[in-house]
Amino acid sequence: MTSEIKLDQINKFQQNLANRQDSKVVERAVSHQGILGSSEDFTSESLMHPVFSIDLSTGNVADQKRSGRCWMFAALNTMRIRLMNTFKVDDGFELSQNYTNFWDKFEKSNYFLENVLKTADQPLDSRKVAWLMATPQQDGGQWDMLCALIEKYGIVPKYAMPETFSSEQSAQLNKYLNLKLRHDAVSLRKLVADNASDDKISETKETMLNEIYRMLAYALGEPATTFDFEYRDKDKNYHIDQNITPQEFFKKYVNLNLKDYVSLINSPTDDKPFNKTYTIEMLGNVVNGRQVKHLNLEMVDLKKLAIKQLQNGESVWFGSDVGQSSNSKKGIMDTALYAPDDLFDTDLSMSKAERLDYGESLMTHAMVITGVDLVDGKPTKWKVENSWGEKVGTKGYFVMSDAWMDQFVYQFVINKAYLSEDQLKAQAQDPIVLKPWDPMGALA
Predict the structure, then answer these.
(1) Which positions, given as ranges, span the membrane (predicted)?
(2) Is 70 marked active-site?
């Protein structure tokens, strides 16, 4: 049934508003302070006091600036802690996010071109091709994608490949790299349509990749192949390891078996039964590299695993929808922080599954859990290391309520050592392949 808005309905709505005794008070508050400022509950701020029963020492907070590399910062932050603790390196030490950024964009470009060829027989208005062309590459990523990069290229200290204008402010590079990739997609699809030989297609793609490498080298700098690792430890002792490769550096100084760490998600939607594994079609960066793979578990199980890892001195990489019910200046993420329902006198509630199914929420940002407050054995709030610099939160650290974790955290990375036997068996399953646009394929 089609029904237009009628004038008598508008008159009715206007009268209903006029009959409300609080309408002008609310209007003045919202029009001057905005929705969040008018609906903020200050009791949340007092409950989110940044003190925790388990609190790991993690050093200074990094700053991703105006780029979308949170997943990369979060992962490298977890790795630098191992290096800092083992070798007594200063708190200001960082691993190069620009180094992994370079190789990520180069590999994503190749991954995109390969997907262009795989879908070249489909019309431009097919959903898969339209999805592919919408964003050929971007800054975001997932844990498994970073592992694929490190397994192939290793890592380096930040001074071996420092930040550049385009790494810190990525909009211009993304614009022109995506223009280049769409331009190349036109050429590749035309070659396939003209029945060009495999050799001709491969030769053309190699030329494209050569040009992309040059663009990235100009914008981000060329990655180091060897470097000297030089530092003074906290006892003021001098150390130098000369002419070391990025792969050697990772194995020697981080010494992390990436295969031990797996992605666990909480997606309580009907299409994803718990205790099953999932991957996402056309999601990745390194062709023939590590596959993105998620094991779906109940949130209560994810929390138990996260606490075990924290108790063992290891931080936890996680992905969430950071823009929901959060205040970045104060560094608070809490479902009770704002009450827009009360402000507008309407029902705005949705379940976690409904938010995922109806496009209200998905993973948008990756951070690191570095502490938890346990009261009578149960978590009440969690300490979070962000990558937005030290001017937000408490010197860059946020407080996340346990209720917020229930609703807006979607992914944890956990060492397999903490999984139960049944969970290990479930994680070993071959993954069910989800559509490219599934919310569990969102890039943080």
Answers:
(1) none
(2) yes
Q: Containing domain of residue 133, as a range?
A: 48-283+290-441
pTM exceeds 0.90: yes
Q: In the chain, how many domains are there?
A: 1
Judge whether 100 and 62 are in contact, CB under 8 Å: no
- Is the per-residue pLDDT at 57 higher than 90? no
CA distance 132 to 418: 37
CATH number, domain of 430, equals 3.90.70.10
CA angle 351, 357, 360 (to 5 degrees): 70
C-alpha distances (whole Å) from 234 to each of 84, 88, 295, 323 are 10, 6, 40, 38
Judge whether 22 lies within some domain: no
What three-state secondary structure class fits 92? coil
Of the residues 115, 285, 296, 365, only one is catalytic, namely 365
Mind giving me the DSSP string for 159-226?
GGS---HHHHB-HHHHHHHHHHHHHHHHHHHHHHHTT--HHHHHHHHHHHHHHHHHHHHHHH-PPPSS
The answer as to whether 40 is a domain residue is no
| Mean pLDDT within 246-264 | 97
> In this predicted structure, what is the pLDDT of residue 137?
98
Q: Is residue 418 part of a domain?
A: yes
pLDDT at 91 over 90: no
Digit-coded pLDDT (tens) for 290-338: 999 999 999 999 999 999 999 999 999 999 999 999 999 999 999 999 9
Question: Looking at the domain assignment, is residue 1 inside a domain?
Answer: no
Q: Which ranges in 287-412 belong to alpha helices (H)?
A: 299-311, 340-344, 352-357, 402-408
The catalytic position among 60, 70, 195, 312 is 70
Is residue 365 annotated as a catalytic residue, yes or no? Answer: yes
Annotation marks residue 195 as catalytic: no
